[in-house]
Amino acid sequence: MQIKTFTFNPFMENTYVLFDETKKAVVIDPGCHNKQERAEIFDFIQSRDLKPVKLLNTHCHIDHVLGNAFIQNTYDIPLWYHREEDAILKAVPAYAGNYGFPHFQESSADHFISDGDLIKFGNQVLKAIWVPGHSPGHLVFYHEASKICIGGDTLFQGSIGRTDLPGGDAETLLRAIKERLFSLPNEVVVFPGHGPETTIGVERITNPFVGKNARF
Hints:
The protein is 24% helix and 29% strand. It has six helices and 14 strands. The protein has a six-stranded mixed β-sheet, with helices on one face. A six-stranded mixed β-sheet has the order 7-8-9-10-13-14. Strands 11-12 form a two-stranded antiparallel sheet. The mean pLDDT is 97.
């Protein structure tokens, strides 16, 4: 499996395209919101002759869903996310203008993902792991074969997701990271929703919020 990272919108959100030798692909958390950003991801997919087959959201805060409608409509593919994120996504149009996105295009789920579900594309399998706290239905997508985890806004290099947004809860997130993400092998590379990659092993020891010597 191969992975392509894009960084989009003023929130510097990471969008991911995962694909393999079959040319089948999934798009995760499309944050593309203007013509230039949409062209960037479209041109990459076209240049590799990829066929997107699924659109996945780790969670549905505005910065991660700005390109949902564009990807859905361009490739005629289904949108998948956790049921508890439905209200989060439906709330976005009410505040999008306040964040500088007055032309936000709405989208809605075609399928809901549950904890432990296996999401297949090409010859690949992603496991959905529920890691709530940043948002109520936050999922991460784990590719066991390559030891890669698409982590959304759960675990960052030296930090964790914020918990002061509606539906967030600090205690829930700290517990979920320790019990769910830290159950993965140390060598797993976490591709987060913002910033650079890290590994489970490094964060297990050094993260100031959830690491071995955490201050909290």
